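=== RUN LOG ===
request id: a7f3
mode: sequence -> structure
chains: 1
length: 235
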Amino acid sequence: MPDTVRRARRVRLLGALSRRTSHDCFVPLTTDTPMAATRWISTTLAGLLLVLAGCGGLGEDFALSAGGVDQAQFEKAIKQSLENLYRTNPAIVDSLFEEHAASQLEDADLSGAVVKDGQIKPKLLNEYKNKAFKTIKDHYRQPQLQEGVSGITYPDSLRTQENSGRVELQMHVDSTGTVNAVEVIEGTHPTLNAIAMKAATGTTWEPGYVRQGAGEEWQPRPGWGRSPINFPAPR
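=== RESULT ===
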């Protein structure tokens, strides 16, 4: 496939990722203030800072007609199946996909009825998803949570059945493993969301890593990770 076509498709992919980003609330951490000191910024700025981070899919209109598919559609379906990996650093993952994994999809037999209910049939999809995933992981390690939140405290007035639940957080982790931005993906009460975000700044992460080839040294890279904080219902 020509490089110009790949680049154009990559721009469309990353654009789709950014359109699906949802920023309920976001706390950036500044270098000249303590980590506990945070400030709110608008969802517009949050979208600029984490434009690729909330990968909920690769486009709402991605549905295939019954029958066969072309190579471009198949590649998009494989990328969509890797969204959990993509959201940790879409630019790096997509670059590695294009450089190392895309060529492995070219031997897929796309003739015949490979689509059912608007999706690639699971057997074919999973076979090439696993190939692409393994190839990318030979060159990329996503950020990993080392020490999460424990012993979180919050007001008794919010310890109700109505306010209980899980706050799903997305954190930007720099190349040293430090959390420098937090957003709420799914929350409960606004105050509990804010408490969870503040607590998340104290979590410890292993940063992402990239290497160009086998035997070469892994280089730390920033990325995104997700972690929930639970606020249990009263007993």
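=== NOTES ===
The chain has two domains: 3-20+55-138, 141-231.
Residues 90 and 115 are 26 Å apart (CA to CA).
=== END ===
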